[in-house]
């Protein structure tokens, strides 16, 4: 984890028939990064058609999922991808089998659903017709001897009022409509109108019914009403039987997709341990793996009988590839200097979250030091300095241990029981990944709380046998308690900040030596280190020296700020007594180092100019020597031909220089870098004062909450008041300190690492190692997309 794992670039030659099986074996490995070396457009690749087929199958799976949700079928998602992948083997023929199986079953279900809808509509019409006949039986047949016309049917309830008004106007008060509610959506109506007066009245009324999309029913003869009702009732019973049978067939097909394909009922623990899930989820996972395989096959350059590809991996992975039985021609280290290797950072459950904090800022380069290793300690320690409180730290530690002990079982339960709660699982998974970070943050906050002697704003009276840990509790009774604590926290923040920044500069020097950048080492690292130590490093030394000096013998303690100002303005001089012997002499040397260091940094462009001029001269001399050797070989050349050969030799010799090399840009860049470092050293040191500021805010808030709530009730001796105010105090402490202040301290600690620490040595412009691994692919797809 100190640096990216050493990897190499390999070239693979794979037969087309073995390509799919070979990639399925690579997908089981952990650290293989396929390089996209195809020259053809993506939509013109040979495997693009296979990906399009996978997309069509995805659409069919989505249709089945919609049907399962429509019929309230529970879907059992895969709770354990790792076990599922280890127990399954995918082949190239599975796509065709899955497509044929899904096409047949989906078409059957859709046809059955269409038939079901038609049968239900037919059944609804029968119910309406029966209701119309029963209604007319009590109304229309009573006026059979009178010269009246009638239209009976069923219409939408919302249109009834409008229909009544139009009929009244068109019939000119010669038509009457009677309504009766059938259900909330449909209404029975009987339209009675006079015959003889208006010959075309019936046709007009029928057109109105057609405009309102009314279902009109013909009434049987009065003598055949009962017989007709019996026939309709029998037909209705047959339709109910058909509907029930069709639903059972649909349920049977959907149960096949939603149930776990096992002969016996399984316990939830067994389902999790073996990765059992619904059949539709099995098909989805298999299709994801096949689709990922086809997608990475498009990375290969297609030839007639072979696929040619490139891969970044370790030597041990190449040995595993050889053991697969596939004939591979391997060419190691193919022009590896023209490629920037991806950064393979191996982490475990403990180091993963700390590396993610670094990766959020930027991926480390392949050959630079990874700050994630140091973040494991420095990040929770800086957090603890800001959040220092014994009680609050213990609460945070308990929560971290709770995640460590019960987090896995909670995730397991969410996966198995709350299938629809995707967000709940995703949120808790993010929290669960931070369990080690939260635990360390709580431990360091507790440790700093002992140093500050602060327990929920109360100072404790404790003393160990041989030494005193932290501040004595008697300081809390002193009037100068706040002044002393602020002085201690402020100076401690400066010392810690300077140590961390100096450490970052040392890491920069380590990077320069490892990458063999000697110019950067002598003209960047050494001047920066000298400037930092001679200024703020010296200030930290004076702080520690002042702490260790006894000023009780009527000695006036010197002001460190005044000492540093006199050192700058008088070039090393002091006013008053010396803090240590030969102080003026040492300060004179330090101030000269601080002045000369930026000047040395500005000499870097001139050194680069001299180096390049010498390099070009040496290169031309080597070309000239080759030309002389050709002349000695009795090669008769015209003068112009000599110049041509000389030019070709210069072009053929590889000169490692940038295409657009402008010294003015180097001068400007060097000047900006120098100014930025000098000003940044001041601003970054001042930025570490946030450790003191947030610690002060945390302790003062805790003290205010305690004194404004519980303390008056304790002084009054009211048990009821203590209980009530304790609830208020707990809610305020949890909401403000344990939630808001925790997040605030977390963000400030993150900023100190990203800006003040990592800016000293960390570029962060590398690119991530894109591993081709089925488990990694499924986890990423599960986290950043919808389930299914």
UniProtKB/TrEMBL annotation:
GO molecular function, one term: proton-transporting ATPase activity, rotational mechanism
Membrane topology label: Multi-pass membrane protein
Broad class of where this protein is predominantly found: membrane
Record keywords, A-Z: Hydrogen ion transport, Ion transport, Membrane, Transmembrane, Transmembrane helix, Transport
Keyword Transmembrane helix: yes
Transmembrane spans: 381-405, 434-452, 492-513, 525-548, 584-603, 717-738
Top-level taxonomic group: Eukaryota
InterPro entries, A to Z: V-ATPase_116kDa_su, V-type_ATPase_116kDa_su_euka
Family according to the record: Belongs to the V-ATPase 116 kDa subunit family.
Biological function: Essential component of the vacuolar proton pump (V-ATPase), a multimeric enzyme that catalyzes the translocation of protons across the membranes. Required for assembly and activity of the V-ATPase.
Name of this chain's protein: V-type proton ATPase subunit a
Native organism: Paramecium primaurelia
């Amino acid at each position: 984890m100190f640096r990216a794992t050493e990897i190499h670039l390999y070239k693979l030659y794979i037969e087309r028939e073995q390509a799919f099986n070979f990639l399925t074996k690579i997908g089981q490995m952990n650290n293989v990064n396929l390089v996209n070396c195809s020259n053809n457009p993506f939509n013109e690749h040979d495997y693009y058609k296979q990906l399009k087929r996978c997309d069509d199958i995805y659409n069919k799976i989505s249709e089945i999922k919609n049907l399962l949700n429509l019929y309230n079928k529970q879907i059992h998602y895969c709770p354990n991808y790792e076990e599922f992948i280890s127990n399954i083997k995918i082949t190239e023929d599975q796509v065709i089998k899955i497509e044929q199986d899904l096409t047949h079953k989906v078409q059957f279900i859709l046809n059955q659903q269409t038939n079901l809808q038609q049968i239900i509509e037919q059944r609804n019409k029968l119910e309406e017709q029966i209701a119309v006949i029963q209604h007319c039986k009590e109304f229309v047949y009573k006026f059979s001897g009178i010269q009246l016309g009638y239209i009976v049917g069923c219409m939408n309830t919302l249109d009834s009022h409008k229909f009544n008004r139009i009929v009244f106007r068109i019939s000119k008060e010669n038509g009457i409509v009677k309504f009766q509610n059938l259900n909330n959506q449909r209404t029975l109506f009987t339209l009675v109108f006079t015959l003889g007066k208006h010959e075309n009245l019936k046709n007009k009324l029928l057109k109105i019914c057609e405009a309102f999309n009314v279902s009109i029913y013909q009434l049987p003869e009065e003598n055949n009403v009962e017989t007709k009702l019996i026939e309709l009732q029998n037909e209705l019973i047959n339709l109910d039987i058909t509907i029930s049978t069709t639903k059972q067939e649909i349920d049977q097909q959907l149960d096949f997709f939603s149930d776990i394909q096992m002969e016996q009922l399984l316990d939830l623990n067994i389902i999790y341990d073996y990765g059992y899930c619904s059949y539709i989820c099995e098909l989805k996972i298999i299709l994801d793996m096949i689709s990922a395989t086809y997608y990475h096959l498009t990375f290969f350059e297609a030839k007639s009988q072979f696929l040619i590809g490139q891969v970044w991996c370790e030597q041990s992975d190449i040995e595993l590839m050889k053991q697969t039985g596939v004939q591979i021609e391997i060419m190691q280290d193919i022009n590896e200097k023209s490629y920037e290797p991806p950064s393979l950072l191996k982490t475990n459950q403990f180091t993963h979250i700390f590396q993610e904090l670094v990766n959020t800022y930027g991926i480390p380069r392949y050959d630079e030091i990874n700050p994630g290793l140091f973040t494991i300690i420095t990040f929770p320690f800086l957090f603890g300095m800001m959040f220092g409180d014994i009680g609050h730290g213990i609460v945070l530690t308990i929560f971290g241990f709770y995640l460590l002990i019960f987090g896995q079982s909670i995730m397991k339960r969410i996966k198995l029981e709350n299938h629809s709660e995707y967000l709940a699982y995703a949120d808790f998974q993010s929290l669960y990944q931070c369990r080690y970070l939260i635990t360390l943050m709580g431990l360091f906050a507790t440790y700093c709380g002992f140093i500050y002697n602060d327990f929920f704003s109360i100072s404790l009276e404790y003393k160990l046998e041989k030494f005193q840990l932290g501040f004595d509790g008697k300081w809390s009774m002193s009037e100068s308690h706040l002044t002393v604590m602020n002085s201690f926290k402020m100076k401690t923040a400066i010392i810690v900040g300077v140590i961390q920044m100096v450490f970052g500069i040392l890491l920069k020097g380590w990077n320069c030596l490892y990458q063999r950048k000697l110019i950067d080492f002598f003209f960047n690292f050494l001047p920066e280190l000298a400037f930092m130590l001679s200024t703020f490093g010296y200030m930290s030394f004076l702080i520690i020296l002042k702490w260790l000096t006894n000023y009780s013998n009527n000695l006036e303690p010197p002001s460190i700020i005044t000492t540093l100002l006199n050192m700058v303005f008088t070039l090393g001089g002091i006013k008053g007594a010396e803090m240590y012997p030969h102080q003026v002499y040492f300060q004179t040397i330090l101030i000269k180092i601080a002045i000369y260091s930026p000047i040395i940094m500005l000499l870097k462009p001139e050194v680069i100019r001299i180096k390049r001029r010498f390099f070009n001269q040496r290169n031309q001399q080597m070309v000239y020597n080759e030309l002389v050797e050709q002349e000695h070989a009795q090669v008769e050349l015209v003068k112009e031909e000599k110049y041509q050969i000389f030019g070709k030799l210069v072009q053929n010799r590889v000169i490692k220089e940038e295409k657009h090399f402008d010294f003015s840009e180097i001068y400007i860049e060097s000047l900006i870098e120098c100014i930025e470092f000098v000003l940044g050293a001041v601003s970054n040191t001042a930025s570490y004062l946030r450790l003191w500021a947030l610690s002060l805010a945390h302790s003062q808030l805790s003290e205010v909450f305690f004194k404004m709530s519980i303390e008056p009730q304790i002084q009054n001796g009211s048990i009821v008041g203590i209980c009530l105010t304790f609830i208020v105090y707990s809610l305020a402490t949890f909401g403000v300190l344990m939630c808001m202040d925790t997040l605030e301290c977390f963000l400030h600690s993150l900023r100190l690492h990203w800006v003040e620490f990592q800016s000293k040595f960390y570029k962060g412009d590398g690119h991530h190692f894109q591993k081709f691994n089925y488990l990694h692919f499924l986890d990423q797809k599960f986290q950043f997309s919808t389930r299914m």
